[in-house]
Amino acid sequence: MSVEMLGLILAGGQGSRLKQLTKDIAKPAVPFGGRYRIIDFALSNCTNSNVKNVGVITQYQPLALNEHIGNGASWGLDGINTGVTILQPYSAQDGSKFFEGTSHAVYQNIDYIDSQDPDYVLILSGDHIYKMDYEEMLETHKAHNADLTVSVMEVPMEDASRFGIMATDENGRIIEFQEKPEEPKSNLASMGIYIFNWKRLREVLVNGYEKGNPMEDFGGDVIPHYLEAGDNVFTYRFDGYWKDVGTIKSLHESNMEFLDLDMPLNIKDRYWKIYSRNDISTPHFITAEAHVNDAMIGDGCYIAGKIQHSILSQNVHVGEQSLIEDSFIMSGCSIGDNVTIKYAIVGENARIGNNVEIIGTPDDIKVVGHKEIVGENNNEQ
């Protein structure tokens, strides 16, 4: 059965700027907000936008991501004629195995896309925090009779050199594109969210590779090709909350913003829920001596210390006389007695011994990696 629009989530990034946090898992699988993983936002946006057929393209350390997504049931993607499919690199006749870029990853999965027979393909990144109605973007794409629509938002001019930058006419048609320019001509930045007419994109990718002009990246190759060919390329302007959590500082900042229940992301919105796969844990327990203020506490936590403006994920143990402030603690961590943690991110299943200090600043966030052990005499849970 054909689908009108197929979702493709690019989830193979290594995320090297997240340091120890992505040593064993892909960036989209990194925990976020106490009970989510980063990819949950793209998957939930698809579900809420009635994009019920989704391919997740993985590459780097995919095990945790595969286990998290499963059959897609947590996002309602396991129904009749709907589903989520994990797409991993494979050895082709030409000897290629790994994806060499964003559009090359799509090219390698042409057979899967053809099997879904979509009119449109929605390309998403799996490592951004935001809510977006892709149905509304599709309606804009149709109204412009576009071959390609690029979702964009205004960014501070001093940050524009980090993005693909668009120059448009008064109708929103893209007339010039700059990929991470040293001297940007505007502050209208690509969000890495695209809607393509599939027949046209398929033609561009196949012809490019057959003629020895590989289309490896959307920003560096495909979009410039569309503009040179005179295709209808338009923008879709987005003005909501959007965060690229590709650095330690931005990941910490976004988690701390998550504590503000009045933030634009509005995590409590019952009409646009963010879904996730969660383990069943016991209720959290806070001792009489503990103090918790302005914090999110996950199930299964044991708290005997002081928690201030922080997020504790599931099954975190905090010992007596310990202080956690302005920090994000991922699931399964054991934190001993008389520990001080400020402006830090502590990875999953890390163990912090007694009398340890991990103190950063807003501009220098300290990181403890996945399963890392710091100090001795660590409390066993």
From TrEMBL:
<keyword id="KW-0808">Transferase</keyword>
<feature type="binding site">
    <location>
        <position position="164"/>
    </location>
    <ligand>
        <name>alpha-D-glucose 1-phosphate</name>
    </ligand>
</feature>
<dbReference type="Pfam" id="PF00483">
    <property type="entry name" value="NTP_transferase"/>
</dbReference>
<dbReference type="Pfam" id="PF24894">
    <property type="entry name" value="Hexapep_GlmU"/>
</dbReference>
<dbReference type="InterPro" id="IPR005835">
    <property type="entry name" value="NTP_transferase_dom"/>
</dbReference>
<feature type="domain" description="Nucleotidyl transferase">
    <location>
        <begin position="7"/>
        <end position="258"/>
    </location>
</feature>
<dbReference type="GO" id="GO:0005978">
    <property type="term" value="P:glycogen biosynthetic process"/>
</dbReference>
<feature type="binding site">
    <location>
        <position position="190"/>
    </location>
    <ligand>
        <name>alpha-D-glucose 1-phosphate</name>
    </ligand>
</feature>
<dbReference type="InterPro" id="IPR056818">
    <property type="entry name" value="GlmU/GlgC-like_hexapep"/>
</dbReference>
<dbReference type="GO" id="GO:0008878">
    <property type="term" value="F:glucose-1-phosphate adenylyltransferase activity"/>
</dbReference>
<dbReference type="GO" id="GO:0005524">
    <property type="term" value="F:ATP binding"/>
</dbReference>
<feature type="site" description="Could play a key role in the communication between the regulatory and the substrate sites">
    <location>
        <position position="98"/>
    </location>
</feature>
<keyword id="KW-0321">Glycogen metabolism</keyword>
<feature type="domain" description="Glucose-1-phosphate adenylyltransferase/Bifunctional protein GlmU-like C-terminal hexapeptide">
    <location>
        <begin position="289"/>
        <end position="358"/>
    </location>
</feature>
<keyword id="KW-0067">ATP-binding</keyword>
<feature type="binding site">
    <location>
        <begin position="179"/>
        <end position="180"/>
    </location>
    <ligand>
        <name>alpha-D-glucose 1-phosphate</name>
    </ligand>
</feature>
<comment type="function">
    <text>Involved in the biosynthesis of ADP-glucose, a building block required for the elongation reactions to produce glycogen. Catalyzes the reaction between ATP and alpha-D-glucose 1-phosphate (G1P) to produce pyrophosphate and ADP-Glc.</text>
</comment>
<feature type="site" description="Could play a key role in the communication between the regulatory and the substrate sites">
    <location>
        <position position="59"/>
    </location>
</feature>
<dbReference type="InterPro" id="IPR011004">
    <property type="entry name" value="Trimer_LpxA-like_sf"/>
</dbReference>
<keyword id="KW-0119">Carbohydrate metabolism</keyword>
<keyword id="KW-0548">Nucleotidyltransferase</keyword>
<protein>
    <recommendedName>
        <fullName>Glucose-1-phosphate adenylyltransferase</fullName>
        <ecNumber>2.7.7.27</ecNumber>
    </recommendedName>
</protein>
<dbReference type="InterPro" id="IPR005836">
    <property type="entry name" value="ADP_Glu_pyroP_CS"/>
</dbReference>
<keyword id="KW-0320">Glycogen biosynthesis</keyword>
<keyword id="KW-0547">Nucleotide-binding</keyword>
<comment type="subunit">
    <text>Homotetramer.</text>
</comment>
<dbReference type="InterPro" id="IPR029044">
    <property type="entry name" value="Nucleotide-diphossugar_trans"/>
</dbReference>
<comment type="pathway">
    <text>Glycan biosynthesis; glycogen biosynthesis.</text>
</comment>
<dbReference type="InterPro" id="IPR011831">
    <property type="entry name" value="ADP-Glc_PPase"/>
</dbReference>
<dbReference type="InterPro" id="IPR023049">
    <property type="entry name" value="GlgC_bac"/>
</dbReference>
<comment type="similarity">
    <text>Belongs to the bacterial/plant glucose-1-phosphate adenylyltransferase family.</text>
</comment>
